[in-house]
Amino acid sequence: MPTEVEKLRKLRIWPVALSVGLFLSISFLFDVFLGLIFPDIGFQRIWEVLLPGFRWISLGHFLWGLIASLLLGLYVGIIFVPIYNFFNRRFVLGPENGHQPQRGGD
């Protein structure tokens, strides 16, 4: 059974994944807005590299970019949180919190 400290330090997948997804979607909207006002300042090329099938800018590509940026954020959260929790359990939580890290070669 996890201690209270472990519960507090453990990240949950969906809040992180949705937060990153929403952050990327808002960033995408902001960059599209900037790119329409100042075509030489926006990050159009970056989005074209990060989001397969995205080209600057039509309604279909705009919708695809918005959906794909959300999905990219979900992917990052789903992959990052278990990795973080794994290393958090192994290296951050120490014996003072009732956890014995299993480190090889120490």
Q: How would you describe what is shown here?
A:
- This protein is mostly helical and 106 residues long.
- The protein has a domain at 16-77.
- The chain is built from 4 helices and no strands.
- The two termini are 26 Å apart.
Structural features:
single chain, 106 residues, mainly alpha, 0% strand
Report, as a whole number of angstroms, the end-to-end distance: 26 Å
Q: How many individual β-strands?
A: 0
Please tell me what the overall shape is: elongated
> How much helix, percentage-wise, in residues?
55-70%
Strand proportion: under 5%
User: Could you spell the SSE succession in H and E letters?
Assistant: HHHH
How does the major sheet shape up?
Answer: none
Weakly predicted, low-confidence segments: none
User: Could you tell me the mean pLDDT?
Assistant: 81
Give the structural class.
mainly alpha
H/I helix tally:
4
Radius of gyration: 19 Å
Q: Secondary-structure map with pairings?
A:
Blueprint: H1 4-9, H2 13-37, H3 44-50, H4 59-92
Helix pairs in contact: 2-4
Summarize the structure in short.
The chain is built from 4 helices and no strands.
